[in-house]
Amino acid sequence: MPRDDLVPSESEIFGWIEQVFSQGIRRPGYPADRWAEQFCLDRFQALGLENARLEPVDLPYWEPKRSSLTVRGAGDGQTLEIACFPLPHWAPTAGVEAQLVPLELQSPENVKGSIALYELPLTRMPHTAFADLATWHYDPDATFTDSAQILPFPREREEIWQSSIDGGAAAFVGVLSDYPSDSHDYYVPYDAVPRHIPGVWISGSDGARLRGMLAAGPVRARIEVDAVRETTTTYNIVGELPGDDDETVIIGSHHDGPWASAVEDGSGISMVFAQAAYWSQIPRRERPHRLIFLLTSGHMAGGAGTLAFIEAHRAELERVVLEIHLEHAAIECTEKDGRLVPTGHPEARWWFTSLIPELEAAVQAAIEAEDLQRSLILPPTAFGPRPTTDGGAFHQEGIPLVNFLTAPFYLFDSQDTLDKIHRPSLVPVTKAAVRIIESTKGTSAREMRAALEDSS
User: What is the 3-state secondary structure (H, E, C) of 383-409?
Assistant: First the structure.
């Protein structure tokens, strides 16, 4: 059971988020992310973690300098300048001009040589559908009964832009057709894979204007994107505390983000700090295992930091009892008069948990003990081969995990600001994570993996 007097306060945890957020855009290798790396190292050292260090990670750096979309109707000659944001790591261009053609997934060849236009509605799913995927959920006030969640992804995103590329399009324009508050600041994809054509995102209202122009006749478009893409060296930040044995629990998140990003993942940084602050005050013999605190770089570059850590520490992985990842203390928002307004509820809390009965029971007990309502325990493979978290790669290595995550629609948007933090979550999620880590005492990595194999 957590000792309340050793758990950082809500204001202290939120204060760390404020400091991170105030530095500005925190994409991998940006000045704000460099600041965050040093800030994380300094905090680890100040909290008394042993062997606090920087571990290098090489990854692609991308910085857009300028982008524009100009369209001209053939009928009346009307010309519009459309606000846009370039798709990350797609090709820069001094200027591509071609006819604007709607993309149909069934016949992508119709966009050859053209600028492909596609409307991408975000995915909406009833909370009851997520509950059906869960092994257990905790919603005592029945808030899931008649509600739905807007996810930060369209259902067919990879297929859409790959269809444009395979169809020979000269460029791509994605319309965020039903995006709340009509934003076009959408940092997707974040795999850092270069594509050989340029692309931009535009808002739903501007997409409607283009549809009106296309209804009146052919439309020509011109895209310009000035961006820098190069290789840079970033850093994972690692610190350790010895425990009752030399088996290991890894407590992680990532330090980069698509914008200044309070939720993604200023909140993750701070929740890892909270764990480090707590466990550094606990006597060594009362720590269930050796603890490794990990804040990775390059989540917004295809999870480069997590993959680099796994590769660098592969020989140690067989001794990992549990990887617990803490991401996104987010508040649920709705749109009102063109603005995002917090509902006061936390966004639905996902706890991706390896299918080990004792571990699932420990997570359930921790959620109930801290009254973390709107929580769902999900199998790691609920949405694909791995959890949709920065820690998901550990699952593919056969490492037992508990990955805490919420997925608000604004996650990759510049609207991810301090008011999106669900402050009442900060302390109870911290205490729940402590309970889960405590539950592993006396259990070895070999026993955990044997239990995982038995449940497969």
Answer: CCCCCCCCCHHHHHCCCCEEEEECCCC
Cα-Cα-Cα-Cα dihedral of 238, 241, 245, 247, to 10°? -20
In terms of Cβ atoms closer than 10 Å to its own Cβ (0-12, 13-18, 19+), residue 165 is: middle
- Which residues is 191 bridged to in the sheet? none
Q: What is the DSSP letter of 314?
A: G
- Write out pLDDT tens, residues 366-424: 999 999 999 999 999 998 888 888 899 999 999 999 999 999 999 999 999 999 999 99
The first and second tokens of residue 394, run together, are 């550990």
Cβ neighbours for 301, distance < 8 A, ≥ 6 positions apart: 28, 59, 60, 190, 191, 192, 256
Q: What is the mean pLDDT of residues 138-151?
A: 93
What confidence tier does 4 reach under pLDDT thresholds 50, 70, 90? very high
Which pTM was predicted? 0.95
Strand partners, 90: 195
CA distances from 268 to 20, 135, 275, 338, 416 (A): 11, 24, 11, 28, 14
SS3 assignment, position 371: coil
The pLDDT assigned to 106 comes to 60
Q: CB under 8 Å to 184, separation ≥6 — which residues?
A: 83, 84, 85, 176, 201, 202, 203, 206
Name the 3-class secondary structure at 336: strand
C-beta of residue 349 within 8 angstroms of C-beta of residue 426: no
75: its two tokens: 């009928």
Q: What are the pLDDT digits (tens) for 155-198?
A: 766 778 888 888 899 999 999 988 999 999 999 999 999 999 99
Q: Taking each helix axis from N to C terminus, what angle separates 10-21 and 268-279, rounded to the nearest 10 degrees? A: 140
Percent of the chain with pLDDT over 90: 83
As a whole number of angstroms, the distance between CA 164 and CA 172 comes to: 7
The DSSP element (H or E) to which 351 belongs, if any, is: strand 349-353
User: Could you tell me if 405 and 386 are in contact, meaning their C-beta atoms sit under 8 angstroms apart?
Assistant: no
Cα–Cα distance for residue pair 304/255, rounded to 1 Å: 12
Q: What is the Cα–Cα distance from 122 to 113, expressed in whole angstroms? A: 27
Q: Which of 172, 156, 187, 183 is nearest to 118 (CA)?
A: 172
Domains identified in the chain and CATH numbers:
4-61+231-455 (3.40.630.10), 64-125+154-227 (3.50.30.30)
By CB neighbour count within 10 A (0-12 exposed, 13-18 middle, 19+ buried), where does 219 fall? buried
Q: How far apart are CA 95 and CA 99, in angstroms?
A: 13
Given a cut of 90, is residue 239 above it in pLDDT?
yes
